[in-house]
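Q:
Got a chain?
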Amino acid sequence: MSTIRIFISSVQKEFAGERKALRDFLRGDPLLRRFFDVFLFEDVPAIDRRADEVYLHEVERCDIYVGLFGKEYGKEDEKGYSPTYREFDLATRLGKHRLIFVRGADDGGKTPKMQALIKAAGDQVVRRRFVSASELVAAIYGSLVQYLDEHELIRSAPFDASFCRNATIDDLDEEKIQAFLSHARRARGFPLPEESMAMEVLTHLNLLDKERPSHAAILLFGKQPQRFLISSEIKCAHFHGVEVTKPIPFYRVYKGTVFDLADQAVDFVLSKIDLAVGTRAHSTQAPVAYEMPPEVIREAIVNAVAHRDYTSNGSVQVMLFADRLEVWNPGTLSPPLTLAKLRKPHGSVPCNPLLAESLYLTKYIERMGTGTGDMIKRCRNVGLDEPEFALTDGFVVTIRRKPELAFKVVGGITGEVSGVVTGEVTGEVQRLLTVLVGEMKRTEIQEALALRHEDYFREAYLIPALTAGIIEMTIPGKPTSSKQKYRLTQKGRDLIAKLAKGKK
């Protein structure tokens, strides 16, 4: 955004103190200095130009004209006009945004021409009166903040509800909106019918600001959300040790909608932590258990996506170490929540309420403030330490690892454990082999592995297994058939036998 230029009028000595006070305030205020640049005639160095040429040129260049009208009219030129009149007249003819401030509670004692100028200005704009420099500063501050608000340069509504600058309806993906509609109807009984148009869905969810997509709309359904909100990506890293070290063994940056981000990050973690697979003694589907409950991992990551500060330049970071999982987001707790209250029943105070609403409708989150309590309970149930919550330069959730618990959970279900697959050693393809029995659809394999993001599953699991010739399609001539299933090849069966032999 280009700087907004402010011209403060009058070269009269009468306002020398006020002009300096305004300049110093506007240049020092943390908010206003982000947007405004101030011109004062006193700041102009000695140059070979007429004074009236300089200040009138600056009026032409400015975006906002601030007129200070006092007792004196000012030195008149050959036509009987003062610099203050010339500035105001030019600003008016050029259509500049004008802010007029008049010294004194009334106009008694002012020169006749100044009284006439004040009246002329009053017929066109709303004037504000002031007595002291501090009163003038406060009045201008209010006017400039109102200017920023009217021009939608600052917001009073939550960030996710304000419109996304430079984005249009064409930047939203109608297929994603329709997929959301179907999912929300199944998950929460969303009231709109299946055939509803995209604009109806967006309107119902309050995702439009004067028919423009809000930040929440872009984050939920954008074709390329990171084009407008660069830091909305998720960075995932896997370290073999307990500290951040370089080079990073596994590092991925995920982009997409908030649904994509959450699913990809969760699947990344699940592909790297230990996984135990039970026998098929009691079912054709072998029981599977991860060393950390997938629900806990998902809760930590989805919360980071839903409640982060999207105005920050930081991204959500998911870091898996040998002894723990850390999920960091650039945000803090909304009042009146505290770290202590997170561990007890508490109300839901979302930082991004519109974003949270759509995540709730698709069952990614609940709206009762139960998420952290559920994480604690699930960790206790499987023998994990309770999650740790901390506020540092952001909000951090830490979940401690205990790989041996995967064996314990599966053993408790089946009475024995047929094998374990570690993300560090054997990789995603071998994980797929552990759950593939007979002929299975892609969705069935994904469900068995507790993975949700189809693109990630295809990229990291399915395509590598097909490429390696370990599995094959049941209908190879129609790869996209709705009846497509996958089964082991002879090479895949030999690999499973080899892995089983190696575990003895």
Remarks:
- The mean pLDDT is 86.
- The chain has four domains: 4-150, 159-228, 231-404, 426-503.
- The longest strand covers residues 97-103.
